[in-house]
Amino acid sequence: MLHDRVMIRVEKESGERRSTGGIVIPATVEQSNRLHWGEVRGVGHHVRTVKVGDRVLFHPEDQFVVEIQGEDYLVMRERDLHAIASERPEHGTGLYL
Fewer CB under 10 Å: which end of the chain, C or N? Predict the structure, then answer.
């Protein structure tokens, strides 16, 4: 990866979800502004915040998709990430968003 680019493997959705009220939401329902979690698989030299292996929250629309060995990855700028879930101890409490 070059510059401030991050390569992310998108986590597959489990299908059906449940609302907080217990209503089952089928996998076929699309939510337009839903953010997705993914795992960082590669970072460029100018990326400062994330490391390979971190889980990140992002919006999957309008990103570049690349296929490597039959698996799809997203390539985006570091500034397009919304949150990081990391267990690195140098950030105080451990897990943060």
Answer: C
**Which pLDDT does position 41 carry in this prediction?**
92
Can you tell me the distance from the alpha carbon of 4 to that of 14, in angstroms, rounded to the nearest whole number? 31
Give the sign of the dihedral formed by CA 64, CA 66, CA 72, CA 78: negative
Residue 12 structure tokens:
């597959």
What would you report as the CA-atom Rg of the chain, rounded to the nearest whole angstrom? 15
In whole angstroms, what is the distance from residue 22 CA to residue 79 CA?
Answer: 35
**Can you tell me the distance from the alpha carbon of 35 to that of 50, in angstroms, rounded to the nearest whole number?**
18
C-alpha–C-alpha distance, residues 22 and 95, integer Å:
27
Three-state SS for 69-92 is CCEEEEEEEHHHEEEEEECCHHHC
pLDDT digits (tens, 9 = 90+) for 30-41: 656 778 888 999
Q: What is the residue type of 35?
A: L
pLDDT over 90 percentage in the chain: 10
